[in-house]
Amino acid sequence: MGQQLRPAVLFLLVTALLLGAMGARLGHLQLVQGERNRQLAEENRIRILPKPPVRGNILDRNGNIIADSRLSYSAFLWPLAKAEPNWETTVNRLSEILNISVEEITSRLDDVPVDSPQLVRIARGLTPEQVTAIEEYNYELSGVELDIEPVRDYPYGSTAAHLLGYTGEITQEELDNRGGDYRLGDIIGRMGAEAAFEQRLRGEWGGQQVEVNGAGRIIRILGEQEAKAGRNVTLTLDIELQEAAEEALGNRVGAIVALDPNNGEVLAMASRPTFDPNIFSGNITSEVWQELQGKDNPFVNRALRGFPPASTFKIVPATAGMESGQYPPNTVLNTSAFLNVSGVRVGEWNRAGFGRIGYRGALAWSSNTFFGQVGRGVGGETLIDWAKRYGFGQKTTLELPEEASGLIADEEWKQQRFNTSWSEGDTVNMSLGQGLTLATPLQVAVMFAVPANGGYRVNPHFLKTDDNQSLEKVSLNLQNSTLNTLREGLREVVTNGTGSAVNVSTIPQAAGKTGTAEARPRASHAWFGGYAPNDNPEIVVVAFAEHSGGGGGAVAAPMARQVMEAYFNRD
Q1: Which of 41, 49, 131, 358 has the smallest count of CB within 10 Å of its CB?
Q2: Where would I find the beta strands (DSSP E) of 78-204?
Q3: Mean pLDDT, to the nearest integer, of 500-517?
Q4: What pLDDT score was predicted for residue 33?
């Protein structure tokens, strides 16, 4: 009997030990880890769906909307989908529908934990056909969600693309650098106003707290916090004048800048070649990207890149000569076929010279030998000093982050780069806007604003404020005789000189200066800068045609005239 009870006793003991162990484990899970386990269960059932804010609008100076947002479908994936048995079918079908490679889709999930409760955007700006296809193949697309969200829209297409910029999804590297309240999937401004005014435009995220079932499908919405829209931004840009500038450029590679010479407001800024920023609001196919790259650097804003300013720069040696006292306003110099500079001949563009002339005639006919003598006489240091006072060699106050500083070389710069000293030839070349001198079309516009407004260097900007004097002008303290001589000479350029293309009845009396910059071995650049009306200037226009092969008077001046006509002759 005792032997028969032993197995039963042993079984009861083992059972008791197992039950005791299980009870202890359950007690530990409930009492010690209960709160943690409840939290994990809740996270599997409750998820947060972030909702992006609507980006603020961008308006021109007259209230025209030039960048806003429209609602569009986007495709998202739950990170858990990558662990599903039918993942391969899902990703292949999604790749086919969205025209995105499998590698790109999977790469978007690489930096996100599989158990992340947040959706990952795979594509935005879906076409109706893509939305229909995703719904049609819903049974194959486990973990794929469609949602409506705002995407950027530019109603004027490529017009003002470089000034406006575009938007794109933040990368992991950018996220690491920015920090703050940015998150993966955030849309940020890239170049132009979109980047410059990112903090004003972006707004604040909202979200929904939702309950999901075992398959990850939403059962009900538990709570919601509205996203806070971004603030609108009003620019100094005049979209109608911008369209006129783009039309004046046509298919030429180059740039046009229109500026208010009295307060520095940028009225227009065109650059060619260009692009349509709307393409970045959806998925960019490899074909579209290759087409863009096939153009001549379409993302470069040539209005903010440095080029040899050629004879437009002769305003600087003229100012240096008069203000130094070495070549006062009544100076008359003999001009000839060439100027001998340390054994090198610097030629006159007409190969003959213009005889004895003063500043007015030298500006009108753009005499190289006249201004070469003035530059050589005042010396490199004085010339460099006045170039910097006009704003050359440094970035302006414009808000765009992609602006270049141009180049005004000096002794130190030349020693560092070429291990040679500054020479007389460098000074003469600078006097003619050539050699080691580079200026952006915007900087050239700032220079022309000085004689236009009575001697002040304006601070260019394109954020419109109620106070037009919010950015103070810088007085160059020019003598009245210097200003008068400059203004009379620039007027004579138009009436009797190389800028006669602007001497037309369709605009008020204008003043300006042409320029033709050598760019060997390629064709030369063409420049024209000017302002109107001559007696009370309202607008400065600088036109630049890169490697056009024509002279400033023949190529660039008609472009500037076309912009002035649009400004003065509209309703």
Answers
A1: 41
A2: 120-124, 144-153, 166-169, 187-190
A3: 97
A4: 53
DSSP 439: B
Q: Beta strands 437-438 and 407-408: pairing type?
A: antiparallel
Cα 296 to the center of its chain, rounded Å: 17
What's the CA gap between 525 and 527, in Å, rounded?
Answer: 7
CA distances from 69 to 61, 202, 477 (A): 19, 12, 47
Phi, psi for 221 (deg, rounded to 5): -95, 125
CA distances from 227 to 1, 50, 230, 285 (A): 79, 9, 9, 30
Between CA 115 and CA 288, with CA 127 as vertex, the angle to 5 degrees is 95
Residue 303 CB burial class (10 angstroms; 0-12, 13-18, ≥19): buried
* Distance (Å, whole) CA 421 – CA 414: 6
The DSSP bridge pattern shows strands 120-124 and 58-59 to be unpaired
Residue with tokens 């350029």: 493
Written as one string, the DSSP assignment of 14-54 is HHHHHHHHHHHHHHIIIIISHHHHHHHHHHHHEEEEEEPPP
Q: What is the pTM of this model?
A: 0.85
pLDDT score at 111: 72
Q: How far apart are the first and last CA of the chain?
A: 119
Query: Does the pLDDT value for residue 354 go beyond 50?
Result: yes
- Under 8 Å CB-to-CB from 454, ≥6 apart: which residues? 483
Q: What are the distances in angstroms from CA 282 to CA 2, 216, 285?
A: 84, 26, 9
Beta strand pairing status for 206-212 and 46-51?
A: antiparallel
